[in-house]
């Protein structure tokens, strides 16, 4: 039984509830970071084939900004937080007051890169913290790896690294809305690509394995 066979709609509902708890934690952290109220929600959690994953990222040949983490511990795998360059630029501008990041995607902007790594740390780390608290599955994040490349190249390299035989990923859509004078929103996705055994470990830890 592969990754896509193991997850039922019930399992995805459970994971969405966990994601919303993590979103609440992330919103609190981002509110403090930006000194303004941030609301964050998770519109959907679903399994998607890689063609759909590419579409969600804007297309295989679309340039995206990716913050990638290796997951170690009880449920290893890879997790990506992906934004369009425009959304990445919007966040960097809001966090740093600088407007040059999106104009220098092929150059080096250490301040902008640091801001995006911190955004990835907050969003992904909050989700995994909620997951760990509820399932008692211990997962540690690597340092974030920031990449600006075509979506197809980024995700294809991940499949090679994992030697993955599944054609699906777990997709968690996120929406961050900043209220007040800024009144802006940032929409992104993060994709979880587990290794061969991680999905069964997660489902067993939830106590819902086979409850379809």
Estimated helix fraction: 40-55%
> How large a portion of the residues is in β-strands, by DSSP E?
25-35%
Distance between the termini: 14 Å
What is the overall silhouette?
globular
| Structural class by secondary-structure content | alpha+beta
The profile of the biggest β sheet is:
8 strands, antiparallel
Radius of gyration from CA coordinates: 17 Å
Give the topology string: H per helix, E per strand: HHEEHEEHHEEHEEH
The poorly predicted ranges are: none
Number of strands: 8
The residue-averaged pLDDT reads: 80
The number of helical elements comes to 7
Structure, explained:
This protein is an alpha+beta fold and 212 residues long. Helices cover 45% and strands 27% of the residues. It has 7 helices and 8 strands. It has helices at 3-6, 9-34, 50-56, 85-96, 110-135, 151-162, 198-206, and strands at residues 38-41, 45-49, 63-73, 77-83, 139-141, 145-150, 168-178, 184-194. Strands 1, 2, 3, 4, 5, 6, 7 and 8 form an 8-stranded antiparallel beta sheet that branches. The longest helix is centred in the N-terminal third of the chain and has 26 residues, at 9-34. The protein is globular and about 45 Å long. The two termini are 14 Å apart. The relative contact order is 0.24.
């Amino acid at each position: 039984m592969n990754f896509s066979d193991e997850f039922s709609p019930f399992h995805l509902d459970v994971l969405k509830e966990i994601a919303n708890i993590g979103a609440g934690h992330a919103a609190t952290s981002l509110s403090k970071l930006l000194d303004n109220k941030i609301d964050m929600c998770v519109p959907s959690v679903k399994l998607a084939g890689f063609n759909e994953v590419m579409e969600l990222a804007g297309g295989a040949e679309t340039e995206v900004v990716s913050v990638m983490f290796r997951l170690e511990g009880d449920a290893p795998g890879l997790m990506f937080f992906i934004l369009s360059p425009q959304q990445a630029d919007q966040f960097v501008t809001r966090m740093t007051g600088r407007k040059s990041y999106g104009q220098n995607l092929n150059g080096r902007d250490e301040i902008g890169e640091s801001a995006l790594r911190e955004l990835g740390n907050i969003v992904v780390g909050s989700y995994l913290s909620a997951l760990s608290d509820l399932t008692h599955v211990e997962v540690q994040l690597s340092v974030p790896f920031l990449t600006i490349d075509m979506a197809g190249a980024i995700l294809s390299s991940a499949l090679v690294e994992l030697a993955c035989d599944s054609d699906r990923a777990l997709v968690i859509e996120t929406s961050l809305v900043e209220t007040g004078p800024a009144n802006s929103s940032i929409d992104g996705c993060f994709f979880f690509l587990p290794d061969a055994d991680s999905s069964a470990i997660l489902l067993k830890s939830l106590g819902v394995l086979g409850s379809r």
